[in-house]
Amino acid sequence: MSVDTLRRWEAAGKIKAMRTPTGHRRYDLTSLVTGNEEVNTSARVISITEDTLQQIAKGLCKYEQQIFKSPSDYPNELQLGVDKLALACVMAGVSQPIQGVPDFISRWAQIPLKEWNIQLDFAEELLEEQLIEEQKPSGFCIETAEEYFDESGNFQKQVINEVMTKAAQKPELYTSFRRYLIEHPVITKGDLDVDSILHFKPVLEILKNSYEKAPESYKLDGIFYCCGHCGGLMYLSKNDELKCENKHCEKQNKPEKAFPTDEDDEVFWLKPDLRYFIHRPGKPELRLTERLRQLNLEVQLYPELDKYDLHLVFSDNIVWAVDVKFWECAYNLAKKVDKPIPRLKHQPYQDSFFVFPDEIQSYGQEYLQEFRTYCTVPLKKYQVMFESEFVKKVMTKLEKHK
């Protein structure tokens, strides 16, 4: 545990210190207060909960954002969470305890949770995960952090709620806005200004506020590159290799594309949570929509201001509702899904499905089973599947009703 951590706890009144005759501090760990309870050092164990994990994940994500803008101190969430881990190390007698945030980021954050060697009060399904991959917060880290991107709450939810309000009398505006974010993860400032005025005047400021200037550090030889699969901006790894933020895109083996621009224009990209929670799942949402329409099926995208993702109507007037989910951790997703897919008033569905992109099909049936196991909404096995399997299910139904 670092000296700075102990002094910070002393200043906050969390731990008692005494001075030796030579002026050195000595700390009494039995006096350390966390919340409203004192630590029992005789137990030699401090359990780290999922709340602490979320606190650390939030701090890591906020810290990454700060790096692009200006150097600053570590976020409070990250510092406090690591302090708890450092104490747990001391109590557990770990041979190489954490020595502050930099040490945590360089070591523990880059290994699976099961290798932390302290008492973890986590679901077993989380223990294989890690918080940092390729020097960036992992998908698991982002999903665990939840509402971290904006000081006043989840920015993505703010954007969606504002657009919903503006589009209350014109639902197609919401669908167009959301499609625009999905199809334009990277854009020049000039194009953004023009499109905002021509096509999105009622939500002009919301659209502009959804983007920020792309980081210069992402350039390779002075040029920005976009992923050949999802279209997102690629970054340079520590080996100066182009990488997509979505690690699953690499498996698609599609070459990157130089982003066309001129030196007089700026390049913008979606803000972090919009990239992860709108653009990332949005690509398979649009892809699935097109695949189903090619089967001459009636498909509505984001019906009634996004009650769910896809509304399917068959020729026999049977209606299916689909929610597409693109999460790394099935356990985290299951905790978020606490209600059945809502029904539309004018055309309620007969069946509903949770569909996962083919990009994560390699996670296998265990992923689907984990989602069903921890989801509080009762789901039958046939209601949870991967994208290609769902398309086959649709085709089977169409064949039966020819």
From TrEMBL:
Check the UniProt entry and state the signal peptide residues, or none: none
Its BP terms in the Gene Ontology are:
regulation of DNA-templated transcription
Limits of the HTH merR-type domain: 1-28
Q: Name one GO molecular function term.
A: DNA binding
Q: Name one Pfam family in it.
A: pPIWI_RE_REase
Q: Which UniProt keywords apply?
A: DNA-binding
Its domain of life? Bacteria
Name under which the protein is recorded: MerR family DNA-binding transcriptional regulator
